[in-house]
Structure formats: C-alpha cells, structure tokens
C-alpha cells in the first residue's frame, strides 16, 4: 500500500537477456485509488548458430556470442551459447562470437537489427577443427 502522492516507477523486463528498464514518470496516485498501467517492451529474438568445416552444428559450451550495442564494444549487454535464443530490446547490435577452445579465434557480426516481435537468425562457420 502506497500513500497518495507522485511517483516514478521503474519496470524491468527480467526475462530479456539485456534486462531493460522502462520508466513511468510523475505518476499521480490519489487517495484510496487503484491505478493500473500497461507497459510494452519492444523486444525481439536472436538465434546464432555456429558450424564447423564439415557442416556440423557446434552446440554446448564451446561457442559463445557476446552481444554489444552497436558501436559500444567495451562491455556486452548479454552473453549466451550458440544455439540459444536470446531476447533483446529492439535495436542494432554487434555480435562477437568466440570459440572457448580458441579464445583468439573471434568473429564479429556488425549491425544486426533486432525488430520487435521478430526472430533474427545468423550463422558463423569455423573452418578448422578444435585440437
């Protein structure tokens, strides 16, 4: 129970990999009132699949995708395994894909556009088998 007054509310989409926040600012709460607000998070999904030279999909704990906001490569907004569906806020992202068996073998996929309600799929290939 809140007292009457003005409030700023933060709503978090915790099921999204990038965990975005939306704010409802300056919400007026009158005495003895029930207020209901609906918010929409404009989000879509990304599925990255990695394959070896023989065309076999690399799944499990070997290939990871690091999702960065486009042009902001210092810290990823999300990290997931190849083959895992990633939920993200609609927008443009740069993907860094790495093979954990060869950390220096990274691939970048730039400016992947995530659209609200859509699923974007990307593919990477690793030409040499792991030692």
Describe it:
By secondary structure, this protein is an all-beta fold. The chain has a domain at about 45-125: Immunoglobulin-like. The chain contains no helices and ten strands. Strands 3, 4, 7 and 10 form a four-stranded mixed β-sheet that branches. A hairpin with an 8-residue loop joins strand 1 (about 5-10) and strand 2. The N and C termini lie far apart (about 60 Å).
How do you describe this structure in short?
The chain is 0% helix and 57% strand.
Shape: elongated
Kindly state the number of beta strands. 10
CATH superfamily annotation of the domain at 43-126 = Immunoglobulins
Distance between the termini: 61 Å
CATH class of the domain at 43-126: Mainly Beta
* Radius of gyration based on Cα positions: 20 Å
Q: What share of residues is helical?
A: under 10%
Low-pLDDT stretches are: none
Strand content: over 45%
Q: Characterize the biggest β-sheet.
A: 4 strands, mixed
Count of DSSP-assigned helices: 0
Computed structural class:
mainly beta
* CATH topological fold name of the domain at 43-126: Immunoglobulin-like
Order of helices and strands: EEEEEEEEEE
Query: Per CATH, which architecture of the domain at 43-126?
Result: Sandwich
Multimeric status of the protein: single chain
Return the average pLDDT rounded to an integer. Answer: 87
Set down the secondary structure blueprint.
Blueprint: E1 5-12, E2 21-29, E3 43-52, E4 57-58, E5 63-69, E6 78-81, E7 85-89, E8 91-99, E9 102-114, E10 119-126
Parallel strand pairs: 3-10
Antiparallel strand pairs: 1-2, 3-4, 3-7, 5-6, 5-8, 8-9
């Amino acid at each position: 129970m809140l007292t009457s007054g003005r409030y700023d509310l933060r709503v978090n989409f915790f099921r999204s990999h990038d965990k975005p926040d939306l704010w409802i600012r300056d919400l007026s709460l009158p005495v003895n009132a029930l207020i209901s607000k609906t918010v929409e998070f404009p989000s879509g999904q990304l599925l990255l699949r990695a394959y070896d030279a023989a065309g076999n999909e690399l799944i499990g704990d070997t290939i990871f995708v690091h999702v960065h906001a486009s042009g902001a490569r210092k810290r990823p907004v999300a990290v997931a395994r190849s083959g895992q569906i990633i939920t993200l806020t609609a927008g443009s992202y740069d993907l860094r894909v790495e093979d954990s068996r060869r950390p220096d073998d990274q691939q970048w996929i730039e400016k992947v556009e995530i659209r609200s309600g859509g699923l974007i799929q990307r593919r990477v290939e690793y030409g040499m088998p792991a030692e």
